[in-house]
Task: inverse folding
């Protein structure tokens, strides 16, 4: 599943897409768990706020992680492609035990860091054991194929989704975020209809998928993760659908998973606890 080669005897780090709007003050369960994985008080976390246009995004996350108990947190204000080549930023990433990618606009994120040394470092560091978390746009960019847009609604159709290249941290999953809150089932089903190679997950707000090196996906947070398993798909009419027409999909499996449930990305087996 990992895009970069994992060294012999080494485990890749966790990959943690968050559906957006994660709780940061009263009960920051997701961020606490990420911080513990990264080493707790000894963690070294790098925040990449590129997707956001707000100058305060990086400093705000530094404050949040400080309040959780992580002292060593830095934000890298990568605002144009030239910044993605800065040696001091790359050095900071090399020393990190965790990298956190904030929300905002995923196309801003992909056009600024895509194909740069920063993007390559994220993939390589994850293969070397560094944990990578991203919320909202920071989650959207994680797969090889990133959902860049599409219609809201419950039904798939011929114009239901648009793709752009993502970071490629994994290729066995397609994902969408703010899922229930923004009624995105239709565009996730549209994404699956193109190619049933990958499972698809829709992550609610304040909910995360903690994907370990064993390819188990554990649900953490207050919402749900919707899993679309196309392994038994026997028919998709996407190739025949006309402009904007509804799409027929036959044989899909759909799982609704809440906190503590586990889905294995490779075997597609579920432990619902």
Result:
């Amino acid at each position: 599943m990992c895009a970069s080669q994992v060294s012999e005897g080494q485990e890749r780090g966790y990959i943690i897409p968050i559906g957006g709007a994660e709780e940061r003050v009263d009960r920051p369960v997701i961020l606490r768990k990420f911080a513990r994985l990264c080493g707790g008080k000894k963690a070294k976390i790098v925040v990449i706020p590129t997707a956001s246009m707000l100058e305060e995004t990086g400093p705000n996350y530094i404050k949040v992680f400080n309040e959780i108990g992580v002292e060593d947190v830095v934000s890298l204000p990568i605002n144009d492609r030239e910044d993605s080549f800065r040696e001091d930023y790359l050095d900071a990433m090399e020393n990190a035990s965790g990298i956190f990618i904030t929300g905002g606009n995923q196309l801003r994120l992909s056009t600024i860091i895509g194909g740069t040394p920063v993007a390559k470092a994220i993939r390589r560091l994850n293969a070397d054991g560094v944990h990578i978390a991203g919320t909202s746009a920071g989650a959207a960019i994680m797969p090889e194929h990133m959902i860049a847009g599409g219609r809201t609604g419950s039904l798939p159709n011929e114009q239901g989704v648009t793709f752009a290249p993502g970071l490629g941290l994994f290729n066995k999953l397609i994902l969408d975020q703010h899922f229930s809150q923004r009624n995105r089932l239709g565009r996730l089903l549209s994404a699956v209809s193109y190619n049933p190679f990958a499972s698809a997950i829709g992550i609610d707000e304040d909910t995360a998928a903690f994907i370990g090196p064993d390819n188990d996906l554990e649900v953490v947070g207050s919402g749900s993760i919707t899993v679309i398993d196309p392994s038994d798909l026997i028919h998709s009419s996407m190739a025949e659908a006309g402009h904007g027409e509804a799409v027929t999909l036959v044989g899909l499996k759909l799982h609704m998973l809440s906190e503590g449930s586990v889905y294995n990305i490779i075997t597609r087996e579920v432990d619902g606890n």
